[in-house]
Each structure stands twice: as C-alpha cells, then as structure tokens.
Design a protein that fits this description.
- The protein has helices at residues 14-20, 39-55, 72-80, 92-101, 105-113, 124-127, 143-149, 177-190; strands spanning 2-6, 26-30, 59-62, 84-87, 118-122, 164-166, 194-196, 202-206, 209-212.
- It is an alpha/beta fold and 213 residues long.
- The chain has one domain: 3-Layer(aba) Sandwich (Rossmann fold), CATH 3.40.50.
- It starts with a strand and ends with a strand.
Length: 213
Amino acid sequence: MRLYLSSFRVGDHPDRLVDLARGRPTAAVVANACDGQLPADRAASVTRELEALGELGFDPHEVDLRDFAGHGEELRGQLAEVGVVWVRGGNVFTLRHAIWRAEADAIIRDLVTSDAVAYAGYSAGPCVLAPSLAGLERCDDVGEVLRLYDEPARFDGLGVLDRALVPHLATPAHPESAILEQVAAGYERDGVPYIGLRDGQVYVVDGEIAGIV
C-alpha cells in the first residue's frame, strides 16, 4: 500500500510523492470535497491542483465522481490506469458522499490495498480514509451534503486507515487550526487514536514502512 497523506497541499516532501508513483507519472485529481463551491471557484480549485501536480512532472486530469453514479466499473477502470489518485481538501462529508454515490468505496479500498495505485492528497482527502468521520463535524459543515444531495451526511469513513487523521494542527496561519486542535483534544479525551499533522507534514506509507515526514 502506498499513501501520501499531506496536511496541506503537496506538503514539504514532493519527492516522496513522485517516488510513490513508481514511474507512472499520471494522476487522477478528485476534487469533490469542493462541490459546494460556486462553479467558477471549484474550477479554479481544480486548476490549482492540476498545475501543482504538473510542476512535479505528473500528467494530471480531473476525475469528477459526480459523473460516475451507477457506473462504478467505468470509474474503476479510469482510476486503475493512473499512478496516483490525488484527493484534494475541502468538505470531508461532501467528499465522502460523492464517493458513496459513485459506488467507489470498494473500488478505492481495493485499488489502494492491492497496491495498484498510490493514494495521495491533503486535508479532507486523507481524512476520508479513517474508520469514522465523527468529530470532524466540528470543522466541516455536514449540512452541505443535505443542500447538495437532499440526503443526510455519512459519518463512516473508508477504513483504509485504522485511525483518524487530523490535519492543520499547530499551524496558526491556517484558519481551521484552532478548531482542529479541539477535534484532536476530543479524540484524546475519548481514547480515539489519530494521526496528527501540522501543515508541511506528510504521513507516508510505502509497503511496511509508515511514518510522518
């Protein structure tokens, strides 16, 4: 399994991301955490990701999960063709719902755990891999899912990680740092294991080797 889970944007170790691609410099950008943005703002968010990955030598393109509801096998085929699936930040509950509606839960788990692709991204992208999203409602608006889909938000994560992940800790310049410090404190109080990252840090998994860099 190969994971590059950054707190914010590419983080401080882009060389590790390139290494995890294993010579397959193609990337599928999943930006559905931004689906609640105005269309022009969402488009700008996607462009920023494409440009950042392009600067690292990747050939990136967007895969919009909204296009694959009821077409899970087509989605599997598209994701299996790339070296890296890059899942950007935004609203983790909106991202989770988009994954569920695209029938992508098992697809992502299978591709990642079988080492067919590397999973990478930041903020909400890594957070959605946890067993549960409970606690993150302190930070992200669960009502956005209801507004977009007229359906309640899901609190189950994909379960690729065995613990929660909390980004933006000890990062005063980030507007969500203080509230995520509260999320982390709640996990500690309740005995919920988690990976805590400050901006710049990345949790990297490469086979049996895992750790924060």
